[in-house]
Design goal:
Layout (H helix, E strand, L loop, with lengths): L9 H18 L25 H16 L1 H5 L4 H29 L10 H18 L2 H22 L8 H10 L5 E3 L4 E3 L7 H19 L6 H15 L12 H24 L7 H5 L1 H18 L1 H18 L2 H24 L7
Antiparallel strand pairs: 1-2
Helix pairs in contact: 1-2, 1-10, 1-12, 1-14, 2-5, 2-8, 2-10, 4-5, 4-12, 5-8, 6-8, 8-10, 9-10, 13-14
Length: about 350
């Protein structure tokens, strides 16, 4: 296996880091009952700014595959060894996700252990897209992405409904995992998981689109990013007239629509940071993305189990801010403060060159 170091783009690290920071911001308000609408997911159909965050991260996972895995193959790396490395890394990401859910189940007295989750989906998509980057040419990758998107659309349509709990993705997940899903109604025996099995198929397509964008970036074909973004936004918007944008189902229109915004963000970050030398804000989060995500989750679980989270919010924010500004601003201020705490942590880690590698 070749040891040639992959090419790094500060823009990619920064964009990954800003995405992780956005994850922490929307995941950790002071009061879930008082959150500004743009910082909430769409209730079902639709796409808010918050609904862009997870597909952005998966898209950047794909970009990173092109920048990290593909060059090693071109430098003479053996496919089998590289595939084993991809499998091992993806498995470790899945294991971290399962461990986090085990901690939540244990510390927070959750009624059940949830096997699906954000890191689990990231790990599965990394394995699938990494394998295809190793064994398929660009045309084959485009064909697989198209097959996943059109095939998933056909499956949902054959399922007969896009409604909550009644759609095919929810029914498949309920049949396989029952009460272990993120949402489960014992009265009806129906459930739903936004990171479930069937909806992971189009999420792989999101990652593959990132692989293709990363290949353009690596080979200095950056001029393709902006027209591709415009095309994806147009196609995704038009497609949504027949297949609604829906993060919970990760609909195919949602994949194309969010990929358009991710392409636009990648183009803008590359121009501003790599070409014009703008400071790569978010880089410290980006080079320690798993540490920030997992570490912040462990902090929330531990502080919540000890009763500290609500105490900190109440005494540090709500008690004095709510009478002056209402309940929404202190909730946001707490989330911003949480992000800043973790910004200081990852800055220190970056300064001391401590990086959690998986």
């Amino acid at each position: 296996m070749s040891t040639k170091a992959p090419q790094r783009f500060s823009s990619v690290d920064a964009l990954r880091g800003l995405t992780v920071a956005a994850m922490l911001l929307v995941n950790d308000p002071g009061d879930w009952g008082h959150v500004y609408a743009p910082l909430m997911h769409a209730e079902w159909h639709g796409c808010t700014p918050t609904d862009l965050i997870f597909p952005f991260f998966l898209f950047i996972v794909g970009v990173s595959i092109s920048l990290g895995v593909s060059p090693r193959l071109e430098a003479g790396g053996e496919r089998g060894a590289l595939l084993r490395a991809v499998l091992w890394r993806g498995t470790k990401i899945i294991a971290i996700g399962l461990l986090l859910h085990l901690l939540a189940f244990w510390w927070l007295d959750k009624p059940w252990f949830r096997p699906w989750g954000v890191l689990q989906r990231i790990g599965l998509c990394f394995i699938a897209a990494g394998a295809m980057a190793l064994y398929l040419r660009p045309r084959g990758q485009w064909m697989v992405a198209a097959f996943l998107l059109l095939g998933y659309w056909a499956l949902l349509a054959m399922g007969g409904s896009y409604a909550p709990l009644d759609n095919l993705a929810s029914r498949v997940d309920t049949a396989l995992f029952g009460s272990l899903l993120y949402q489960f109604d014992p009265a009806t025996g129906r459930g739903h998981d936004p990171e479930g099995l069937l909806s992971t198929l189009p999420a792989i397509a999101t990652t593959l689109l990132g692989v293709r964008a990363g290949d353009w970036l690596r080979h200095q074909r950056v001029g393709r990013l902006l027209p591709a973004a415009a095309l994806a936004l147009a196609v995704g918007g038009l497609w949504s007239l027949w297949l609604p944008l829906n993060k919970n189902l990760w609909t195919s229109s949602y994949v194309v629509w969010t990929a358009g915004w991710a392409l636009l963000a990648l183009w803008g970050a590359h121009v501003l940071i790599d070409r014009k030398g703008l400071r790569p804000w978010g880089r410290s989060f980006g080079v320690n993305a798993i540490a920030a995500y997992a570490g912040s989750a462990i902090m929330v679980y531990a502080f919540s189990a000890l009763g500290w989270m609500q105490a900190i919010y109440r005494h540090g924010f709500a008690d004095w801010m709510t009478p002056r500004f209402g309940p929404y601003l202190p909730s946001l201020a707490f989330a911003v403060a949480f992000v800043l705490v973790w910004w200081a942590i990852v800055r220190l880690m970056d300064h001391r060159r401590w990086y959690l590698k998986v």
